[in-house]
Write a structure and sequence with these properties.
Length: 256
């Protein structure tokens, strides 16, 4: 699948993969900083942003999308960085294609299976329930979502997926049907007989439970040259909670 993307800088290539409900725009500020030394690509993954929609939505096909993206743009030896769902895509891609990756960065995501179906089903159903023939502003969308999603930060993150159609009505860019139909596949673990032996950085938020201490035993087994860094006072969205500490860890890993 051809992926819409943003591009910044010149030099060693780097691909940043966003998480579930994310878009390339989420990573623009970080990409502009990294663009001082890297040629940074930020694709919208399938069923997200301005990329195409598909009924197929799992880590196998999304890792293949990254392979196709690298081939299309003649990218050589990239650094691959992914957050959350994007972290699992990055792990899957690195394990399947170790010779194509220079370094790997995984942000607040483990290899294990997660049990988050109820939480995400609630979010998606709230989005699907909005009648855009009646809702005429982003404020009205926020008010409606607030009935189900109490966390204003999550609502703001989700609402980045709103856009104005040619008929001057709001709509979601996300392919919500494909996401909810395949939601169990997104929470599956990454299983592979392969190992990745190149430098790998795993970053977690101190306040997040996505990467537990015991998870790193399996991570270290599959990613043999890996290290784990914990960002104080950060939750799952490490890069937004503590951007300076986050970027310091990224630069230290990339430049030294």
């Amino acid at each position: 699948m051809q992926l819409h993307f943003r591009q910044y800088g010149e030099g060693q290539p780097m691909i940043i993969i966003h998480g579930l409900y994310g878009i390339s725009d989420n990573w623009v500020n970080h990409a502009r900083i990294l663009a001082e030394n890297y040629k940074v690509y930020i694709p919208d993954m399938r069923n997200h942003g301005q990329s195409g929609h598909s009924n197929f939505f799992n880590y196998e096909v999304m890792a293949e999308d990254i392979t196709e993206f690298i081939e299309q743009h003649e990218i050589e030896n990239p650094v691959i960085m992914g957050h959350s769902m994007g972290g699992k895509i990055a792990m899957k891609f690195a394990l399947d294609n170790p010779d194509l990756v220079q370094k790997l960065i995984v942000i607040d995501m483990s290899m294990r299976q997660y049990n988050l179906r109820a939480f995400h089903s609630k979010i998606i159903n709230a989005m699907l329930d909005i009648d855009f023939s009646k809702v005429k502003s982003r404020k009205e969308v926020d008010d409606y979502l607030a009935k189900t999603i109490e966390d204003a930060r999550i609502r703001l993150f989700i609402m980045k997926n709103l856009y104005w159609t040619e008929r001057k009505t709001l709509s979601w860019r996300l392919n919500l049907k494909a996401i909810i139909d395949n939601i169990d596949a997104i929470f599956e673990g990454i299983n592979s007989q392969q190992s990745f032996n190149k430098p790998s950085l795993f970053i977690r938020g101190q306040k997040s439970d996505y990467v537990r201490d015991e998870d790193f035993d399996l991570i270290k087994k599959q990613f043999t040259n890996s290290e784990l860094k914990t960002i104080p006072n950060a939750g799952h969205w490490v890069q937004a909670d503590e951007p300076e500490l986050f970027m310091a860890e990224i630069k230290n890993f990339l430049y030294f």
